[in-house]
Amino acid sequence: MKSRSLTADKIVIKALELADKEGVEAVTMRKLAVSLGVTAMSLYNHVDGKDGLIDLMLNQVVAKVESPAVGGDWEDMMRRRAHSMRQVLLRHSWAPKLLISRITTGREIMRDIDATLGCLVTAGFSYAQADWVRNAIDSHIYGYTVQELNYPVEPEAYRAAAAQYLPMLSQKDYPFMHEAALHIIDGSYDGVTEFSFGLELIIDGLKRWMDAA
To answer: What is the pLDDT of residues 84-94, one digit of tens each?
Structure first.
């Protein structure tokens, strides 16, 4: 690729491909330049160094999230946004920790926040309440997804792990953990937590709170 045909969008697309394949640590200006067939210095004409590039990458990730429609049913909108965001973050496993550890003011990130607040405020929440709701739901999304990515256990593997650790869970010392492990081993419970369970608890609690106000 000739340097004059290089654009920020092309750099971000290539950086996303690299991060998704090898992790964000693998995204270096030198490696990007080689993969794009340009000099490393030419990248700086389009992106503000590594930090600026990371911000652009995160902005592009959030652009894939289904943001709420202002004026739409807030329960349905929050539910759809949460499931959409989780799926996006699972596809870009390097992104969750960065999104919760740095202030990024990309256009798509700001658009998603604004749409979420707008949906909640038009549904009757105050601005303060809307911000609390967004943070509560986002905490569930990010917390669950980070745990899911770092502890990916399928039902069969969980059952095997329960059987392996059962001898350590004496019925005398850990009666409830012992019984829970037996339920996992016999297949009556797969041991895998449900994203929807926590999300519905939050939405149901918020609905009750609103109805009582």
So the answer is: 999 999 999 99
Q: How far apart are CA 90 and CA 96, in angstroms?
A: 9
Q: b/e per residue, 75-88, with b = 16+ CB within 10 A? A: eebbbbbbeebbeb
Q: Return the structure tokens found at 161.
A: 């792990």
CA 65, CA 82: separation in Å to the nearest integer?
A: 9
Taking the C-alpha atoms of residue 81 and residue 67, their distance in angstroms, rounded to an integer, is: 6
Whether residue 2 is predicted with pLDDT greater than 60 in this model: the reply is no
d(CA 12, CA 108): 14
Which domains does the chain show, CATH number per domain? 3-47 (1.10.10.60), 62-152+192-212 (1.10.357.10), 155-185 (no CATH)
Region 25-49: mean pLDDT is 92
Is residue 187 within 8 A of residue 159, CB to CB? The reply is: yes
Residue 131 makes CB contacts below 8 A (sequence gap 6+) with 117
What pLDDT shows up at residue 152?
66
Query: Is residue 120 a contact partner of residue 70, using CB atoms and an 8 Å limit?
Result: no
pLDDT at position 151 is: 80
pLDDT of 156 reads 81
- Cβ atoms of 68 and 116 closer than 8 Å: yes
